Amino acid sequence: SCCIVPAGHSLTCLPPIALIPSPSPHLLEQLLHSYCCLLIILCHSRGSPPLFLQDTGLYYDRYLREVIEVLETDPHFREKLQTANTEDIKNGRLSKELDLVSHHVRTRLDELKRQEVSRLRMLLKAKLDTLQMDHASLLKQFEHLDHHNQNFEAKDLELLISTATKDLENYDAERHEEFKRYEMLKEHERREYLKGLDQEKREKEEKRLQELKEKHSQHPKVNAPGSVNQLREVWEETDGLDPQEFNPKTFFKLHDTNEDGVLDEQELEALFTKELEKVYDPKNEEDDMMEMEEERLRMREHVMKNVDTNQDRLVSLEEFLKSTEKREFNNPKEWETLETKPAYTEEELQRFEVELRDKEEELKRRAETLHQEQELLKERGKALEAQKKEYQQAVLEMSQRQKDQQAAEVQPPAGPNGELQFKPDTNKEEDKGKHLREMICAVMSSLVFFEYILIMNLFSSRTRWAESPSCT
């Protein structure tokens, strides 16, 4: 879930994606890679050292990193990248500089793009056969490159950056939505579990769950994130310094761990650990670690909203110092934790349960269809096996008949008194036997091929069902 880089570089880690409750695979890939893309470019634009990200195994990680590495080899583009600001990167102005890079760099970028398109086509071959769609239609779902042009143009760099920017802007909203679905699923399972108990056990279990809920809510006061009390607590307990000597500028430099002059989202979230430990303990049954990560996200959003004035998702020293001069810094409102207000309404929960029931019914229908196909295949297999045995028996009989004929040809036929008898003409019978054997072999070959086709059809049906979006 993290991309680790050496100490002193501009990026320490990515958000703990693995803790997000049940995100869809396609959405997770897009968000994580887009986040990597924008942060890489932003780090380079501030003149930071190259990043050596671990391979995340996602679908355009290699392409992204190779494009960055190739562009870095061009002195002109490297200079423009280091002097560009965030807006130049986001609005695509930086991508126009691609026309000025050297010929060998453009040639290498063209090669990288052709390799990426070829790789995507190989990955989509199975879907092509299943969905009966052409390659161009399938490639449209990948927004990080222009699939109409095989060469790497300015548009490709612009798409790579714009995809990162768009996904990054929607990242937090998607995480909130996934958390809401997680909470609704948890409540749905709780209600279904209680329905399956008798009256006495249900009352006992409801009482136990209520006690756990009350125990979770009995925690020390949580300071508002970004307030003077919260920062002084970190200053004292984490940094080991005298709270009376709290200095905002010194605090900023202490927690700018990569020394790039800004606090990124991960450095900010690290400041909230002490507050979160007041509410959540992984050893306690009543504390949900998924809720802790949602609380961490809410705290970070709260600070960014009040401090990040230019909305670049980074807190500069100037922005941080200005925030300490606000009235809310010294007299913040009391922070409301997640248990004070539900993440969903009863109406949303009801719609969610209807959606779950619909998906369950769809899965049952598909399972029944698959079972019927399996039974049909078994019956056809039995019929094929019976026919196979019949033809095998016929072949054995023909072989035995041929052996008998050959044995009879060794001794000339004789009558009762030893007189010679005329030998009947068996050429026609031999031709008929040979022709019959050839027909039997051809029929058996056809049956074996038909059996293979039936097995492959069933395997294809199972594969399509297993890969369907609702098969969870």
Automatic annotation (TrEMBL):
Residues 154-215 form a coiled coil. Residues 243-278 form the EF-hand domain. Residues 395-431 are annotated as: Disordered. Keywords: Calcium, Coiled coil, Cytoplasm, DNA-binding, Golgi apparatus, Guanine-nucleotide releasing factor, Membrane, Metal-binding, Phosphoprotein, Repeat, Secreted, Signal. It is found in: Cytoplasm; Golgi apparatus, cis-Golgi network membrane; Secreted. It comes from the Eukaryota. InterPro entries: EF-hand-dom_pair (IPR011992), EF_Hand_1_Ca_BS (IPR018247), EF_hand_dom (IPR002048), NUCB1_N (IPR057576), Nucleobindin (IPR040250). Gene3D superfamilies: EF-hand. The keyword Phosphoprotein applies. One of its GO terms (molecular function) is guanyl-nucleotide exchange factor activity. One of its GO terms (cellular component) is extracellular exosome. The keyword Zinc does not apply. Its main location: cytoplasm. PROSITE patterns: EF_HAND_1, EF_HAND_2. It is a peripheral membrane protein. Pfam families: EF-hand_7, NUCB1_N. Major calcium-binding protein of the Golgi which may have a role in calcium homeostasis. Acts as a non-receptor guanine nucleotide exchange factor which binds to and activates alpha subunits of guanine nucleotide-binding proteins (G proteins). Belongs to the nucleobindin family. Interacts (via GBA motif) with guanine nucleotide-binding protein G(i) alpha subunits GNAI1, GNAI2 and GNAI3 with higher affinity for GNAI1 and GNAI3 than for GNAI2. Preferentially interacts with inactive rather than active GNAI3. Interaction with GNAI3 is inhibited when NUCB1 binds calcium, probably due to a conformational change which renders the GBA motif inaccessible. This is Nucleobindin-1. It comes from Labrus bergylta.
